[in-house]
């Protein structure tokens, strides 16, 4: 009788044993972060190509640079405007589904452009589809992954994922430039489509929406149940926008960050290569210079974060914008058929300053808007892309009318001076922790 009880108890223990989980050598959060990193690198590849297509499309179809710039501007505007809502969609439908659909939209737009014959198709394929797709894989994607999967090392992961965009630009810009130069723009567009399609299986198989999906706690934190799908996040996103729009600091932050986008993505990323080509520089050489910006972008962003912890964010922004404006005023004089030391100095400096504005801008959003700061920053980021979109369109128009991009560089330099003044007049809400330069 006793032996029977013992046998039953041993059997029960044996049945329960397989349910015990041994601690994995690597937390699943790092795998999810790695997939996110690769996906963001791919997103940078998708955004690298439009600037390389301006001259080939103008030559083949006779489309004006203004028409082509309009499609690029739509892409940039949607990249920013989609971001605040992408997080809401991820809360409602899950990270995997949203990112897979976004990658599918990018692949469809890039592949369909191979057969386009009219400029409105460029607006549809590269402007609408690619813009919506890449916007869904912007900062909202990395922020959602970081917030769900990490408690410890959250700052490190955020920095690495932010750097992924620069890494993607570094990898894909020279490659796409070589393809465009030696094989034409269509193979380059197909390459972008294939890159998006290749990433989809990795996202679907390795990405998970929440640590609870695989029975884990976030890295460095305690186990929490997976929250129910959120249906009101989009409404809150809009409400926070209306509340912030009633305050002066929001418009100063949004306006200065719009100028930041105009002088980086809208101007340098879109028109540096065709402008250098106008002065006789090979497309591959110009694209390689642009890729170098991505290297120093990482260094500048990290250093700017360190400075933001120690100095007044308003004064940092003023210094960044002022120096950027001065450098743009000198750029037309640096354009030449070959790469020379002053141009290399400009590239290094501009790389250090490229997104150095992000840490102090985010710090000011936190200071002014507290728990709503992340959403407010999402809308400020949207203004960044709207500014980029306007300059991407107007830059092409100026080139069509004047035959040169010089006026665009000078105008952008003046705008940066305006942004420096806007940063200085943002009111201080908490002076206790401010440190002067």
UniProtKB/TrEMBL annotation:
<dbReference type="InterPro" id="IPR011701">
    <property type="entry name" value="MFS"/>
</dbReference>
<keyword id="KW-0472">Membrane</keyword>
<dbReference type="InterPro" id="IPR036259">
    <property type="entry name" value="MFS_trans_sf"/>
</dbReference>
<feature type="transmembrane region" description="Helical">
    <location>
        <begin position="407"/>
        <end position="426"/>
    </location>
</feature>
<feature type="transmembrane region" description="Helical">
    <location>
        <begin position="250"/>
        <end position="272"/>
    </location>
</feature>
<feature type="transmembrane region" description="Helical">
    <location>
        <begin position="376"/>
        <end position="395"/>
    </location>
</feature>
<feature type="transmembrane region" description="Helical">
    <location>
        <begin position="186"/>
        <end position="207"/>
    </location>
</feature>
<dbReference type="InterPro" id="IPR050327">
    <property type="entry name" value="Proton-linked_MCT"/>
</dbReference>
<feature type="transmembrane region" description="Helical">
    <location>
        <begin position="156"/>
        <end position="180"/>
    </location>
</feature>
<dbReference type="InterPro" id="IPR020846">
    <property type="entry name" value="MFS_dom"/>
</dbReference>
<keyword id="KW-1133">Transmembrane helix</keyword>
<feature type="transmembrane region" description="Helical">
    <location>
        <begin position="29"/>
        <end position="48"/>
    </location>
</feature>
<feature type="transmembrane region" description="Helical">
    <location>
        <begin position="284"/>
        <end position="306"/>
    </location>
</feature>
<dbReference type="Pfam" id="PF07690">
    <property type="entry name" value="MFS_1"/>
</dbReference>
<feature type="transmembrane region" description="Helical">
    <location>
        <begin position="98"/>
        <end position="118"/>
    </location>
</feature>
<feature type="transmembrane region" description="Helical">
    <location>
        <begin position="318"/>
        <end position="337"/>
    </location>
</feature>
<feature type="transmembrane region" description="Helical">
    <location>
        <begin position="124"/>
        <end position="144"/>
    </location>
</feature>
<keyword id="KW-0812">Transmembrane</keyword>
<feature type="transmembrane region" description="Helical">
    <location>
        <begin position="68"/>
        <end position="89"/>
    </location>
</feature>
<feature type="domain" description="Major facilitator superfamily (MFS) profile">
    <location>
        <begin position="31"/>
        <end position="431"/>
    </location>
</feature>
<protein>
    <submittedName>
        <fullName>MFS transporter</fullName>
    </submittedName>
</protein>
<feature type="transmembrane region" description="Helical">
    <location>
        <begin position="343"/>
        <end position="364"/>
    </location>
</feature>
């Amino acid at each position: 009788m006793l032996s029977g009880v013992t046998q039953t108890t041993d059997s029960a223990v044996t049945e329960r044993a397989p349910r015990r989980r041994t601690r994995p050598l690597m937390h699943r959060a790092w795998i999810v972060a790695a997939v996110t990193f690769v996906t963001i690198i791919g997103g940078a590849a998708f955004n690298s190509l439009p600037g390389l297509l301006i001259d080939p499309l103008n030559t083949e179809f006779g489309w004006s640079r203004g028409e082509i710039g309009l499609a690029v501007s739509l892409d940039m505007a949607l990249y920013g405007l989609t971001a605040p809502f992408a997080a809401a969609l991820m809360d409602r439908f899950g990270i995997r589904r949203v990112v897979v659909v976004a990658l599918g939209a990018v692949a469809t737009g890039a592949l369909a452009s191979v057969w386009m014959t009219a400029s409105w198709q460029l607006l549809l394929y590269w402007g609408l589809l690619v813009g919506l797709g890449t916007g869904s894989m912007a900062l909202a994607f990395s922020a959602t992954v970081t917030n769900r999967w990490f408690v410890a090392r959250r700052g490190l992961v955020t920095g690495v994922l932010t750097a992924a965009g620069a890494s993607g630009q570094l990898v894909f810009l020279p490659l796409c430039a070589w393809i465009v130069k030696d094989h034409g723009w269509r193979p380059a567009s197909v390459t972008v489509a294939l890159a998006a399609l290749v990433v989809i299986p990795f996202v679907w198989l390795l990405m998970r929406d929440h640590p609870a999906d695989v029975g884990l706690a976030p890295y460095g934190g305690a186990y929490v149940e997976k929250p129910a799908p959120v249906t009101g996040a989009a409404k809150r996103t809009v409400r926070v926008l209306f509340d912030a729009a009633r305050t002066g600091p929001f418009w100063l932050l949004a306006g200065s960050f719009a100028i930041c986008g105009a002088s980086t993505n809208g101007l340098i990323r879109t028109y540096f290569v065709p402008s250098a080509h106008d002065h006789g520089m090979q497309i591959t050489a110009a694209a390689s210079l642009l890729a170098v910006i991505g290297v120093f972008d990482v260094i500048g962003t990290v250093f700017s974060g360190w400075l933001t912890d120690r100095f007044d964010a308003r004064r940092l922004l003023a210094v960044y914008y002022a120096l950027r404006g001065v450098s743009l005023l000198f750029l037309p004089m640096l354009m030449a058929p070959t790469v020379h030391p002053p141009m290399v100095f400009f590239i290094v400096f501009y790389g250090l300053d490229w997104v150095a504005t992000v840490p102090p801008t985010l710090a000011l959003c936190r200071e002014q808007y507290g728990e709503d700061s992340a959403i407010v920053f999402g809308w400020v980021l949207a203004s960044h892309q709207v500014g980029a979109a306007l300059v991407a369109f107007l830059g092409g128009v100026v080139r069509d009318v004047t035959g040169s991009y010089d006026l665009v560089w000078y105008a952008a330099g003046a705008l940066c001076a305006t942004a420096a003044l806007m940063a200085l007049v943002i009111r201080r809400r908490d002076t206790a922790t401010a440190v002067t330069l």
